[in-house]
Design a protein that fits this description.
The protein has helices at 54-66, 84-102, 123-133, 141-150, 203-213, 251-273, 292-304, 306-313, 320-327, 362-369, 396-403; strands spanning 2-4, 14-19, 31-46, 68-78, 109-116, 159-167, 170-179, 192-197, 232-237, 281-289, 339-344, 347-353, 356-357, 373-379, 385-392. It is built from eleven helices and 15 strands. By secondary structure, the chain is α+β, with helices and mostly antiparallel strands. The longest helix is centred in the middle third of the chain and has 23 residues, at 251-273. The strands form two sheets. Strands 1, 2, 3, 4, 5, 6, 7, 8 and 9 form a nine-stranded mixed beta sheet that branches. It is 32% helix and 28% strand. Helix 2 links the parallel strand 4 (68-78) and strand 5 (109-116).
Length: 407
C-alpha cells in the first residue's frame, strides 16, 4: 500500500464537479457532486443523535434497503436539519434533478448537507446547482480537490487523501475527502466523509469493513463534545479495478481493510487538527490498558476534557488535568501505576510516575507543548491493550467562531 496524490476522483470511473450555488455563502463555491460511471456498492454510517437531518434519513434508507448508489450531491451553508417533511422533500427533489441530468435513478442518489441547523434549503438554487455541475464532471485530481473545498464550512482547508494497494493481482485505488471543524464528537461516524474505491467487493463486506474501522478512526476524535445531527460517512465501490469480487474475508479483504484504516485515520486526524480555533492537534495515546475498550474510553476522556485542551493551548504541563480526565472516565485503574509523558517533534519528557510528579524541566515541557502536534502518553501498566484518540486545543477563537456562526 502506498499513499498517492489525489482524493475522491483518483479511483477509476469517479468524477466530481463543484459550483457556487449561493445557498448561504456569497461568492464562494458551496456545492459538490460525485458521480461514478458504473453503479456502486454503497456503505454508510450515520449519526446516533436522535435528531437526525433529512439527508441522514434519506441516505440511511438507500444504504440499508437498496445498497447501491451512483451519485452524491453535497451542499454547504445550510444543514437541512430540523426542517420536517419539507426538508425530506428537498432530498427527493435533489435526487430528481440528478435523475434528469445524469439519468441516474433517484434512489441511486445520495445527498449530504452541512451548515446551520433549522434553516430551509433554497431548493431552486440546489436544483440549479445540480444542473450546472452535471455537464462539467471531471475525473482529474483538480476536480476532486475543488469538490473537497466546496463542502467546507468553518474548516480552514480542504481534507483529502488517496492510497493504492493490490487485490487479486490488480492495482486498486481508494480515495477520500471529508469536512469537519466544529460540532465534532462522533459516535458511529464523523461530520461528513466520502470515500470512493474501484475495488470489486460484496456490499456486506464493504459495510462491515466500514462499520468496524470507524471505531478506531472517526469515533476516536472530538473537537467540542457535540455530536452532530448530520454526521455521515459514505463509502462507494464501483468494481472497475477488475479484481475478482471479494466475497469472503481473505488476504485481499485484509489489504483493503488496512488501506481503509490508513485513509480514515488520516482524514480523522485532519478533522481533529482543524478544530474551530485550534492551534494544535492533541493526541492521547493510552498503552498497557486492561482491554481495548478501556483504552478507547481512557484516551477519548483525555482529549475531550476542556481543561486538558486549554492546557495544550497554554503550553502548560499541568499533568493533573490528564490524570483527572483518566480518573473520571469510568475505567477503574491504580493511579500509582500510571506513567505520563508528553511528546512532540521537540522531544519527549516523562512527567509523572509512582503516584507523584518527576523532577522535570518546565522550560523543556513548554517547548514540547508548543509544537503543532502534541501527544500525551498514558502507560496504565494494567494489560496489553492500547488506543489513540485525537482532539485539538481550546483557544479564544473557538468561542468567537461559534458566538456568531449564523451571521
Amino acid at each position: 500500500m502506498k499513499e498517492i496524490r489525489g482524493g475522491v476522483t483518483t479511483p477509476r470511473g469517479f468524477f466530481a464537479a463543484h459550483t457556487a450555488a449561493g445557498i448561504k455563502y456569497k461568492e464562494r463555491i458551496d456545492m459538490a457532486m460525485l458521480y461514478s460511471e458504473a453503479p456502486c456498492r454503497a456503505a454508510g454510517t450515520f449519526t446516533t443523535n436522535v435528531v437526525k437531518a433529512a439527508p441522514v434519513l434519506w441516505d440511511k434508507r438507500i444504504v440499508d434497503e437498496i445498497g447501491t448508489a451512483q451519485a452524491v450531491v453535497i451542499n454547504a451553508g445550510i444543514a437541512n436539519a430540523c426542517t420536517g417533511e419539507e426538508g425530506f422533500g428537498y432530498c427527493r427533489e435533489t435526487a430528481a434533478a440528478v435523475c434528469e441530468t445524469l439519468e441516474v435513478p433517484a434512489d441511486q442518489v445520495l445527498v449530504a448537507s452541512t451548515g446551520v441547523i433549522g434553516m430551509q434549503l433554497p431548493i431552486d438554487r440546489i436544483c440549479a446547482g445540480v444542473h450546472a455541475m452535471a455537464p462539467v464532471l471531471r475525473g482529474d485530481s483538480e476536480a476532486g480537490t475543488a469538490a473537497a473545498k466546496a463542502i467546507l464550512t468553518t474548516d480552514t482547508h480542504e481534507k483529502e487523501v488517496a492510497v493504492q494497494f493490490e487485490a487479486g493481482g490488480r492495482t486498486v485505488t481508494l480515495g477520500g475527502m471529508c469536512k469537519g471543524s466544529g460540532m465534532i464528537h462522533p459516535n458511529m461516524c464523523t461530520m461528513l466523509a466520502f470515500l470512493t474505491t474501484d475495488l470489486a467487493i460484496s456490499g456486506e463486506l464493504l459495510q462491515e469493513a466500514l462499520r468496524e474501522d470507524i471505531r478506531d478512526t472517526y469515533n476516536m476524535i472530538s473537537v467540542d463534545g457535540d455530536t452532530s445531527t448530520n454526521d455521515t460517512v459514505l463509502l462507494l465501490a464501483n468494481g472497475l479495478a477488475g479484481n475478482a469480487v471479494i466475497t469472503e474475508k481473505n488476504a485481499d479483504y485484509d489489504e483493503f481493510c488496512r488501506a481503509l484504516h490508513a485513509v480514515n485515520t488520516k482524514l480523522a486526524k485532519m478533522i481533529a487538527g482543524d478544530g474551530e480555533g485550534a492551534t494544535a492537534l492533541f493526541e492521547a495515546r493510552v498503552i498497557h490498558a486492561k482491554t481495548k475498550e478501556e483504552a478507547r474510553i481512557l484516551s477519548k476522556s483525555v482529549i475531550c476534557s476542556s481543561l486538558t485542551k486549554a492546557m495544550i493551548f497554554g503550553h502548560d504541563a499541568n499533568f493533573g488535568r490528564v490524570l483527572c480526565a483518566l480518573g473520571y472516565s469510568g475505567v477503574d485503574f491504580d493511579p500509582d501505576r500510571v506513567e505520563l509523558s508528553f511528546e512532540s517533534e521537540a522531544g519527549r519528557i516523562p512527567i509523572f510516575t509512582g503516584g507523584k510528579a518527576l523532577d522535570y524541566s518546565e522550560e523543556q515541557a513548554t517547548r514540547i507543548l508548543s509544537e503543532p502536534v502534541v501527544t500525551v502518553v498514558a502507560d496504565m501498566h494494567a494489560g496489553e491493550a492500547s488506543a489513540t484518540a485525537w482532539g485539538c486545543d481550546l483557544s479564544y477563537d473557538y468561542v468567537k467562531i461559534n458566538a456568531d456562526y449564523r451571521s
